[in-house]
## 1
Amino acid sequence: MDEQDDLARRFDAHRPHLRAVAYRMLGSLGDADDAVQETWFKLSRSDVGAVENLGGWLTTVVGRVCLDMLRSRATRREDSLDAADAPPRMPDPVVGDPDRIDPEQEVLLADSVGIALMVVLETLAPAERLAFVLHDLFAVPFDEIAPLVEKSSAATRQLASRARRRVQGAAPAPDSDPVRVRQVVDAFLSAARGGDLEALVAVLHPEVTARSDGGALLPGAVLRGARKVASQAITYARYAQDGRPVLVNGTPGVLALDAEGRPVSLMAFTVRDGLVTALDFLTDRDRLARLGLGAA
């Protein structure tokens, strides 16, 4: 085995971890794969013979790649005339079968990276997101993150602290019992399909937030409050009529298909203390198709 083959083998051993870092940083599975590939290119062109901790080195490299990608996104948004009025964008969900464990998805979703957390991460400034993700989710020391954001370790700590407060305020830890969460989701679906407004309100947190992302052809929207969300859910209950249970970022959700088996809607639920605190709807058919969702 030559040196390049050995390097590729060592890199592949770290690939699932790097993809997990990039997914949390970018909220896009395709972009995460691109970031991991760019990390390999940088590794293949570098002399790492003296690197004692290759995993740590690769983590900081993929972090830098993701930071550059996030900054490029931010610049494009600033250049867009419609940036201020841009509808919410749901991060790429990781959709799985509730009856089958996927080892690759388990690695990708370690540490309960639910949709609600991913949505909040999308609101952070690039440097804040990097500091929070690398330190809080992957235990990278601040003195290793600081050079990436071109700040002191103390200033980098403040970035992570500011991001942590945002995350804890907007995405507190959800219920972790999948059976209990599935019961709440089933109660929501039963009430929505039956048009029972009061039963629906009863399973929603009073300050529940519902976000929809329909892509360019169906602009998204945000609703807040149990009664508003319940009324809208009943109006659009047709999306759930033929839905089948799935896992969305490890949490029970619903995928609705049309008569030809094509995905038309994905619903992700965030449940805390037995109530739905957030609903995220992805109805962008192009994105659903790119995610490979459809009839099994």
Note: Residues 54-79 form the longest helix (26 residues).
## 2
Amino acid sequence: MAKATQEDKMAELLIREDAASVAHLTLNNPGALNALSDDMLAALKATFTDLIADTSVKAVILSGAGKAFCAGHDLKEMQAGRQSPDGGAAYFNDLFARCGEVMQLIPTLPQPVIAQVHGIATAAGCQLVASCDMAVAAEGTRFGVNGVNIGLFCSTPMVALSRNVPRKQAFEMLTTGEFIDATRAREIGLVNRVVAPEHLEDETRALAATIASKLSSAVKIGKQAFYEQIQMPLDQAYDFTREVMAVNMMNADTAEGIQAFIEKRKPDWPQ
């Protein structure tokens, strides 16, 4: 019974709606600005783990309920953890390890993950946006790694942020604690697109639908190769990706896609 209750609680915190091969995940704790509490992290981990093996889903959208995408860690919960009998450095090490595990799950998913961002995305919430494969933001959205303002340097959010934007821009955000707007976020590469708030969901769904229309096995192998090669020296990256493309070319569905292009028709791919 306790397990079912915990599962119900996670289902309320992270709503999953599947349609047309797209899984839409909604962070659903608007009263806390969808903070990454212990329960929210557990819900994200469980859902991402399920998606790894879900071949019916070809793209994932991650959004937030209420007036914000995500305000980062739950500071009240963190303060309570500091005072708990098992608190202290061990507690915080465990918290940040669990958060890092969730962030690192995103690039391991076979499906591209698109952040649908509005309101604010701060600290670990900004880290979550940076960890997603793509991001669409509403005009007026603000992004920040603001921990330095309360004496806590955003060191773990820095990992994802510094792998998305130029280092000087990342360092300025980290050391000033200042927000940037959606337009600036697009300029420095933190988000892909900026749209009017009333079009945010439609634009994000359209992007997800475009991805879902592609051959999922090709997208899967491409996403995995993207994250592996980007960490390699140039010559190693070419050696690695030529092997990846050779394997991809041997896929019967890829052969069908090429033949369909030659014959000027739609490919007959598995749905």
Note: The CA atoms of residues 138 and 195 lie 5 Å apart.
## 3
Amino acid sequence: MLLALALAGCATSPKPIGLASVVQAVGDLPSPTSADYTRPTRDFYLGPGDKVAIDVFGVPELQRTAQVDGSGRLSFPLIGQVDVAGRTPAEVSATIAERLRGEYVKNPQVTLNLEESLNQTITVDGQVVKPGMYPVSGTMTLQRAVAVAGGPSELAKLDDVLIRRQVGDQTYIGIYNLRAIRRGNYADPEIYPSDVIMVGDSEQRRLFRDLLQVAPLLTTPIILLLQNNN
């Protein structure tokens, strides 16, 4: 497996926060406004194993909980199988409503809510208090993901936090300094479903030892592209 440096300090990497970005150097932090609590969250996409609650307004007979099967479909009364994998709940709700409309329900209003997901999860491993798989709902960042796993353990190396991500047929590794993020040296990166986070993992540290010695990650993370020899 060859390591190729794909991005390092480029426009797509989080930028350092300079003095020009500081609006108020002293005093209390400003209070959030109502807009800060109504920002749009990231859509999530249904996948095999997800459990959803479906409700057709005014038709209690059609209210039920269903699970997406291994082929990415779920069964619903009157209309049979519905393809849902890779689609948002809003898209699936619209499909169910369209197939019910007219013949079965005059003007169906369908809502679909995710109750349990095996698809929208991340893995947090290494030197954290509670390693494991955790659900992702809305927007999550690296700091929040580590906190969900109980926070770093006493032996954690905060300058050695890896995010492994699969994009298409490519595997990327992001190397971050959590201490620098906490200090505001650069932005807290967003975490996506299926990401694997490793905190202070000694095996991974040996793998990237030379690179970590050259770049201390104080002002920007390093993004690596992992390639397989064919």
Note: The two ends are 10 Å apart (CA to CA).
## 4
Amino acid sequence: MITRRSALGGALAAGLPLLAPGLRAGGEAHAAEALLPAGPHRAQDPVPPAFTMAMPVPRVLRPLSSTGGLDCYELTIRKATAEILPGTATEVLTYDGSFPGPVIHARSGRRVLVRHRNGLDMPASVHLHGGSVPPSSDGNPMDVFAPGTSRTYMYTNRQSHASLWFHDHAHHMEAEHVYRGLSGMYLLTDDLEQSLPLPKGRYDVPVTIRDARFDEHGQLAYTMGDRTRTTILANGRPTPHFEVAARKYRFRLLNGSNLRIFALSLSDGTPLTQIGSDGGLLERPVAVPVLTLSPGERADVVIDFSRHSVGTRLVLTNTGPGRPEQVGKVLRFDVVRTADDPSKVPHVLRDLPPASALPKAAVTRHIELSMDEDGRPDPRGFINGQMYDPERVDTTVAFGSSEIWNVTNANKRASHNFHLHLVQFRVLERGGRPAGPTEAGLKDTVRVMPGETVKLHVTFDGFRGDYVYHCHMLDHSAMGMMANFRVR
């Protein structure tokens, strides 16, 4: 049996520094601010003033071939350098040299094949987060491919539209690999979404927000559980600006952080119009004064800049955990021109069955997330009191069945969230109350605050095989907060 310590030893032997002396555990959450000590004094991050740099739009990949209902891509996972900070070459891990990661456009019912070549000196595994895929293409944490080898992933895209993403999932390495850049967007569309008059083309912009810490040389600094990652990046640039026209835009927001929870709002007090979550469009648009996203969660929002005159500068702010002067600004929108706008946000976006009409649950399960909070130097993460064991099947479900999963955060200070591979679920309750409108759509990742329980309805009708569920605060899953489930 592979133990966490032996797996860590193997990863360290491969040259990846995973754990630092004096490591402490904890997440970036309101209730967890006191969990971690500040650590030794560090030199001031060499980060430019806010809004100095322009936010890039991620590169869209073009398929090598598109024949017979199949789009084929080939990517090399490799080290590269990126100008994250002005005039500084920062070493990053990338898919084909892109930082931020690239975007793959896909369509429901049309297969996508991606061949990844591992150009690193350590194992890799690629997970399509939110995708309904067979086990061989899921990117299981232990299903890695070695340096110098390749792995082909086949995505059948049998699900409806959704703003998905792909990222490394090699166990005990996933946290640092993703932190250093191994993630990209996978935007799946279908006829329903395309039929709606939502903003499209250049007015449909993917934005990954995350935090980072840089050393005095402008290199990404990583230690597990680090709460001093206070440089906020939007599409790989620190607190950038983005030029917009005075019209509606769709922004596909992804929280790509390891630990940080964001609470996003506009500086003029105008609510964000949320139209989608992890698994695609909501049933109806929702006006959201503050949008909360935990790591791995996505939200599609529409911002109408036509109410602002040319020359207006509007800031996307963060009131989540941390000092406002450090993490309070995410991105500035600069209205620079007028533009025609044929787009609209319909009152009804899609039909979703109400909770009362969901399939009857055959089983109710209780999942408890926890981690050491006693200050030990090598904290551990648990699900139902057990650390991850790749040889152990923790949960077995019947193919085609529906179940209720009650997921509880047993910690007093540390926040967690919960991600299920293979399936999209419905959030029924949070803390014993019905889920709010922003969580009423299809989800694959959900935040769980200290002492809180969320109630999920899950239907396992995608594929048979072995998958995992885990905390998607990736530092926590690397500490062992992960479990296996089998669909048969």
Note: The first helix runs from residue 4 to 13.
